[in-house]
Specification:
The N and C termini lie far apart (47 Å). The chain has 14 helices and no strands. With 280 residues, it is an all-alpha fold.
């Protein structure tokens, strides 16, 4: 089971679903092997990226997350490297089976995520921005599978700001271990209050952006009925809660809440693109 848990399966599942959703919201959608290959490729690459991230975070995780498979000793470094290679190879070969353009995009994302783990994770915001960009690109990747990459633009923008705010919260949670290992993140350089302010700015902007698809008639009222209480309500709660004293445990719970809330956001987009007649 250690091989399974080190991939962070919930994140992998979210990526797999995101690719399918990006294809599904396009008028060109059809269930084809191409969409399945794109979803599998994205899932494999993210799983591999999570594995290599644990390798380079080994010392930090011994402080912040001692129960992680590698930090706890359930897997050895050698076993983890092999598992990473298998997952990345599977992701790239699956992308190649989908087509040359898919392989090129997958290779670029795969390389960027390795760069993040090896060099950018310990930087101020640069690594966070890269990870958030990769998360948004997942929707473009999925929409491309139905030859309509523009359909993925709106969820890609949402994903970028959502992930960027959550990345800053995760850095706040990991502050102690990061400082012990000379990993200089935004919260480590500027302090927790500055990090809270940054998250509030990012999520405040995202709150406004979530209204735009309905205002401009991109998604139906059904989207709005779900996104306001289900996504915006959670964002407001997190923004408010961060201003109070927070332990790493509480920050971890807020991060997990946001991860689960991604499913609500995906549901809102799905309803907003397929049930206009029912809600309008």
């Amino acid at each position: 089971m250690a091989y399974f848990w080190i991939t962070r399966p919930l994140n992998v599942l979210l990526t797999f679903i995101s690719v399918w959703l990006a294809a599904f919201i396009s008028p060109n959608f059809a269930v084809t092997p191409l969409v399945g290959l794109a979803a599998l490729s994205a899932a494999f690459i993210l799983a591999g990226a999570n594995v290599i991230n644990d390798i380079y975070d080994f010392e930090i995780d011994r402080v912040n997350r001692p129960t992680r498979p590698l930090a706890s000793g359930a897997l050895s470094i050698r076993q983890t490297w092999r598992w990473f290679a298998i997952l990345y190879m599977a992701g790239l070969l699956t992308a190649l089976a989908a087509g040359v353009w898919f392989f090129c995009i997958a290779a670029v994302i795969a390389g960027l995520l390795i760069w993040y783990s090896t060099h950018l994770k310990r930087t101020v915001l640069i690594g966070n921005i890269l990870v958030s960009f990769a998360a948004g690109l997942t929707f473009i990747f999925g929409a491309l599978a139905v030859y309509d990459w523009q359909a993925g633009l709106v969820p890609a923008v949402f994903a970028f700001f959502f992930h960027l705010g959550r990345e800053v919260i995760k850095d706040m949670q990991d502050l102690e271990g990061d400082l012990q290992n000379n990993a200089v993140t935004f919260s480590g350089k500027f302090g927790l209050k500055a990090a809270v302010l940054l998250v509030n700015i990012l999520f405040g902007l995202l709150l406004l952006l979530t209204l735009m698809p309905y205002i401009f008639s991109i998604y139906s009222a059904g989207y709005l009925w779900i996104v306001i209480p289900g996504v915006d309500g959670v964002l407001i709660f997190v923004m408010f809660r961060l201003w109070f004293p927070n332990s790493p445990s509480v920050l971890g719970k807020l991060s997990s809440l946001l991860k689960v809330d991604m499913f609500v956001g995906l549901s809102a987009i799905w309803v907003g693109t397929h049930y206009a007649a029912f809600f309008n």
